[in-house]
Amino acid sequence: MPRKRSPGRPGGDSEDLRRRLIDAALACYVREGVAAASIKSIAGEAGVTPALLHYYFGNRELLRQAVVEDRILPLLRGVQQELALVSGDVGTLIAAFVSAMSGAIEQNPWWPALWVREVLCEGGALREVLVEQVGRAFLDTFVQRFAQAQQQGDLNPDLDPRLLPVSLVGLTLFPAAGAPVWRQLLDAEDIDNGALQRHTLALLQRGLELRS
Amino acid sequence: MPRKRSPGRPGGDSEDLRRRLIDAALACYVREGVAAASIKSIAGEAGVTPALLHYYFGNRELLRQAVVEDRILPLLRGVQQELALVSGDVGTLIAAFVSAMSGAIEQNPWWPALWVREVLCEGGALREVLVEQVGRAFLDTFVQRFAQAQQQGDLNPDLDPRLLPVSLVGLTLFPAAGAPVWRQLLDAEDIDNGALQRHTLALLQRGLELRS
Questions:
Q1: Which of B14, B51, B138, B212 has its CA at a distance of 20 to 30 angstroms from the CA of residue B92?
Q2: Do the beta carbons of residue B105 and residue B111 sit within 8 Å?
Q3: Residues near B73 by beta carbon (within 8 Å), at least 6 away in sequence
Q4: Which domain holds residue B23?
Q5: A207: chain B residues, CB-CB within 8 Å
Q6: How many domains would you assign to chain B?
Q7: Residues of A with CB below 8 A from B183's CB?
Q8: Is residue B8 a part of any domain in this protein?
Q9: Shared domain check, A23 and A127
């Protein structure tokens, strides 16, 4: 049995099928976790035979690598590239981050739940790959820009530049991941992505604006 | 075999042992998840026989209920009671929330990771019980106080009172849960609980304080 498809660009039908198989893998990863999702359950999700999955991806581990390379890294690199193009002050950068995260989540609705299960959870299957391949460089750039802005008097001096990216993730990716819980709790089906972004920017830019 | 210990207050040794067994269950829940943690693995963690665990708690489900009642609900009710005693403005309430969460996490270091795995994760074993037994009433009180403060002009009018509790959890419990990741990424072993609280309060009270 071939471990992987032979090289060369696959035809259109074949690419569609590959995409569908990866969609099925993502659905199973979100629902069951990467470690528990078997070739059999992913094949069932896609409505194909396990043999076809084996033919396309070889084995579970190679399929996981394909999901990372085809979907997760492009998502994160897209956000990175969007932010790399932002010139100007740190306020513009932070607003662009909130907007880029919101866009990425809207286009990849599986991402917040997968991030919780496989990055945030202890022992998550994607923690190491994301930390090493994307996280470190991404964070370093942010932390440097925040520290610089602070030195120039452009950013609240009582913030910790290293903790600010953590706060930004806590105000963007976390609310998306927790949405099934808080929507149910707050009867908040009416709060859309735009309303969430406006709230987040108001909090970041001006804080609580307490009177006393 | 008795399903549960006979009624009546157990002696000191027995209480110590019960506490140790529940500690072992918590450790296994954090590491393996509630659904995967077997009586055998919890007994192994505690250094006792599975039969002893069965004698004390009956079965896996009753043990899970004991963990919820002995540890998780008291933790959350402790935070609730601390906040119920806060009189004064909404700024005092929010500062008290940040401080109460920080204290609860310090005293129950297993809580952030367990919350991620069993409340935030889709299909988490504790989501329903926490949402119904604690979450709804807790959130309602907060949302009402925020809405009232806003009407009185005491709180940033562009915030959504329903989303503010979500932001507060994203700035307290989420950073605690993500600490193993961001500490590694940021070489931030030096950032202690106090520094995290000061950063969070500075961000909440004054926002980014952008110059332009």
A1: B212
A2: yes
A3: B133, B134
A4: 13-58
A5: 156, 203-207
A6: 2
A7: none
A8: no
A9: no
B120 touches chain A (CB under 8 A): yes
Q: What tens-digit pLDDT sequence spans chain A (212 residues)? A: 444 444 444 556 788 999 999 999 999 999 999 999 999 999 999 999 999 999 999 999 999 999 999 999 999 999 989 998 888 899 999 999 999 999 999 999 999 999 999 999 988 999 988 887 778 878 888 999 999 999 999 999 999 999 999 999 999 999 999 999 998 888 888 999 999 999 999 999 999 988 75
Q: How far apart are the first and last CA of chain B?
A: 72
DSSP 8-state symbol, A48: S
Rounded (5°) CA angle A75-A77-A81 = 120
Residue with tokens 């055998």: B40
Measured between beta carbons, the chain A residues lying within 8 angstroms of B121 are 113, 116-117, 121
Going by C-alpha positions, the residue among A22, A21, A32, A121 that lies closest to residue A73 is: A22
CATH number at residue B191: 1.10.357.10
Within-domain flag for B6: no
Residues B98-126 pLDDT 10s: 999 999 999 999 999 999 999 999 889 99
Entry pTM: 0.90
Q: Which two tokens stand for residue B185?
A: 């990424």
Which of the residues B185, B189, B196, B206 would you substitute to probe the A interface, choosing the one with the greatest number of A C-beta atoms within 10 Å? Answer: B185
Question: How many angstroms separate the CA atoms of A196 and B166, rounded?
Answer: 10
Using the Cβ of A186 and the Cβ atoms of chain B, whether some distance falls under 8 Å is answered with yes
Residues of B in contact with A160 (CB under 8 A): 191, 195, 198-199
Q: Are residues B81 and B157 in the same domain?
A: yes
Q: How far is residue A195's CA from residue B52's CA, in Å, rounded to a whole number? A: 53
Q: 């994301």: which residue's tokens?
A: A130
Nearest to A79 by CA among A5, A172, A17, A9: A172
Task: Test B203 with A159 for CB contact under 8 angstroms.
Answer: yes
Closest B-chain CA to A164 = B199
Q: In Å, how far are A18, B15, B18, B178 from B12, measured between CA atoms?
A: 62, 5, 10, 37
